[in-house]
Amino acid sequence: MRFVSLFLNNRLTIAPEILVNDSSLKAVPFGELSTLEQPPLNPTFQYDKKLQQILYGKQLLFDELPFTVDQIQLHYENGYVKYSHGICKTSNGYLCSRCGNEKSRLFAMFSCFCCKNDNCVYCRNCIMMGRVSECTPLISWSGPEVRWSRGNKLHWNGELSSGQQVASKEFVERFGSDGKLLIWAVCGAGKTEVLFQGIEKALNLGLRVCIATPRTDVVLELAPRLKAVFPNTIIASYYGGSEERETPAQLVISTTHQLYRFKQAFNIMIVDEVDAFPYSYDKSLQHAVSRAVTPKHFLLYLSATPSKTMKKAAMNERLPCVKIPKRFHGFPLPVPKMVWGGEWKRRLEKGKLPAPFLKWLKAQGESGRRAMIFVSSVSVLEKLSELINRVVDVPVDSVHAEDPMRKEKVIQFRNEEIQLLVTTTILERGVTVPFLDVAVYGADHDVFTESALVQIAGRAGRSKDDHNGDVLLFHYGKSLSMIQAINHIKNMNKEAGI
Amino acid sequence: MSYCLYCHESYSKAWSWEVLIGLEVSPLLCQDCEGRLVSVKGEICRICGRDFSIFPEQYRQGDCCFDCIRWEENESWTGILQQNRSLYVYNDFMKELIAKLKYRGDAEVVKAFYPVLSSEFKKISRDAILVPIPLSEERHYERGFNQAELLAGGLKKQVESLLKRKIHEEKQSKKTREERLSQKENPFEVVDSVKVKDQKVILVDDVYTTGSTLRCAAKVLIEAGAKEVSSITLAR
Q1: Would B65 be classed as within a structural domain?
Q2: What integer pLDDT is reported at residue B171 of this predicted model?
């Protein structure tokens, strides 16, 4: 967009070119306005409550707001809305102030019709949330704060295990001031319940809380659980395609990507599955988190498989840490068994299955138990599910990250309409289904790292009535990750004293 | 090593003599993304350029598809669009890619196809003028660019914006085929008829779906004196 500078109430201010009918004023691309002076707050201005609720604690584009440019500009002129640069020039390139991207290959230029600049730079890293270019202002709220209700009551009468109690107490006692905490809890320790008391206390102190998780599936699973235990609290879930983004919520459950939409919003940030990010991702996640929190904030990290850096920080006491080595039902974690699967990849190409895998499949078909079968890639996924369909006579389906029916299929699996679900590593976390066995087809593949395998094994034996599901790793030669994962699980069982 | 212009993953192209001497060109995408594209090749409809290998046999008559026969049978449309040629089949991946380009506004995606566009259409665009399908002023402002203009840029020839839209109307993608075909008024007009007169014109657009957009554009050009009009699109 282009803006013109003009005098309004004896102050120099800026306005979008399209709103000004004076052709004598020179319009310049937004990015070329070097100083953006914020007009003072006009206390008599009747601001729009809905705009406040949508924009409070966020930073959005004009296109993302259900208001006209006119309405937004009026709030700007009265000091209730702030404009800031989306793309900033740095000493050696550009910086996207929404997603923190600084990689030059993820910036591109185009001839922009809005600002008439032939080389308008935009960020390709966060393009899925709409284009931030040099000429796009980021819009945030600078008017009065939203006040939250204090009547948030926790409706839950479950009981915490001893491990959960320790962690829950630690969380409740630590926040209120700046700080951080790592809760290192095995898969199935019941992390969510550990959060309840802390969240209740925070909400009643008028604080805003966010639970950020890397996966949409986890958002979809957590949101209804939290809505059930906090019936009086406004809770919104944010993920690609969610419809609750306009709800002014005190408790937000968001995918880490959607965090980019927030700015200085949360007093307490809970980062779930903090290790689920590939190494290179760390920086942009950190950026998203640091943008979304208020200057004074409490950070809670949750993980079953913390990264090396995080474990080290915990050991050096730079990062306070509580461990929950035991599952909430008190039974040990199922230890994976390694099964020779031969040349699983070549066999698949020939349209055959390894004999031990075939035997397991048939047994699974007869027992009627559900199973998740993890594979390394979408191409393996397609071939394998077709072959399985041919050899067993039970409902089989497959799911991967870009599957448009992903949400529905997971629900069907939960409802036992699908018995065998072939999946890529997207379902390695968060999905909890009772009476489940797990197999990994081609466990020696690189994508199955130690933490991936620990997470996958953690899907089995989640319920008290079925605490010992099978975990089978079909491989063509043991990998280091497989051995490390098995040791990791055995150590946790040992620490739990079982 | 290069980075895929769609998914940003790094990749390296297989080395071969064909690539080196320019006989074989491929889009600037990684192997995975390129593998999800389906090129239009083999037998195609003489007019709209649709790939017959993925088209039901019963809707075909000789070298023409039923849709084109229907167009040609209608007197007011006979011979208006001489031919359309497209690079890829409009499959799910192409839909995603075009959505990223148009609705998310990732203009750079187009550049992935520049090498293929220029080599594939060099011959047919030799003595023609390239005219991109225009957007309405309002939509153009909203999007910041015109994807058809960007695509035309890949043909390494002078691009002439000789068409414009009369009115701002609803997005084509939100209408059904019936609605698109029943449009009475032609949304386009020629900006400069002198430049069009007795010329061979090639229209450029992102997708050929029903062909009604391209035929409307072709019609006003023919009426303004163009010798013949054909079209090039990324997807069919």
Answers
A1: yes
A2: 62
Summarize pLDDT for A63-87 with one digit per residue, the tens: 989 999 999 999 999 999 999 999 9
State the complex-level ipTM. Answer: 0.88
Task: Flag whether B213 is in a domain.
Answer: yes
Question: With contacts defined as CB-CB under 8 Å, which chain A residues touch B108?
Answer: 108, 110, 124
List the domain boundaries for chain A.
2-141, 162-324, 337-495
CB contact under 8 A, B105 and A128: no
In a domain, B15, yes or no: no
Structure confidence at residue A190 (pLDDT): 87
Provide the CATH number for the domain formed by A162-324 in this structure.
3.40.50.300
pLDDT score of A34 = 79
Which two tokens mark B145?
A: 């660019």
Angle at CA A45, nearest 5°, toward A44 and A50?
135
Q: Give yes or no for a contact between B7 and B33, defined as CB atoms under 8 angstroms apart.
A: yes
Cβ of A128 within 8 Å of Cβ of B100? The answer is yes
Please give the CATH number for the structural domain made up of A337-495: 3.40.50.300
Can you give A75-98 as a three-state secondary structure string?
A: HHHCCCEEEEECEEEECCEEEECC
- CATH of residue B35's domain is 3.40.50
Residue B14 belongs to some domain of the structure: no
Range list of β-strands (E), A97-142: 107-110, 120-123, 137-141
Query: Which tokens sit at A107?
Result: 């910036």
Backbone angles phi, psi at A295, to 5 degrees: -55, -40
Counted domains in chain B: 1
Nearest CA to CA, how far is A75 from chain B (Å)? 22
Q: Which tokens go with B44? A: 């195609």
Phi/psi of residue A139, each to 5°?
A: -110, 130
Per-residue model confidence as pLDDT tens digits over A339-361: 999 999 899 989 999 999 999 99
Average pLDDT over residues B28-37: 89
CA of A50: how far to CAs of A37, A78, A148, B117, in Å? 25, 16, 15, 48
pLDDT digits (tens, 9 = 90+) for A365-395: 889 899 999 999 988 999 999 999 998 889 9
The reply to whether residue B145 touches residue A106, judged by beta carbons under 8 angstroms, is no
Q: Say if the Cβ atoms of B105 and A106 lie within 8 Å.
A: no
Q: In chain A, what residues touch B140 (CB-CB under 8 Å)?
A: 113
How is residue B35 annotated by DSSP? Answer: H
A111 CB neighbours in chain B (<8 A) are 145
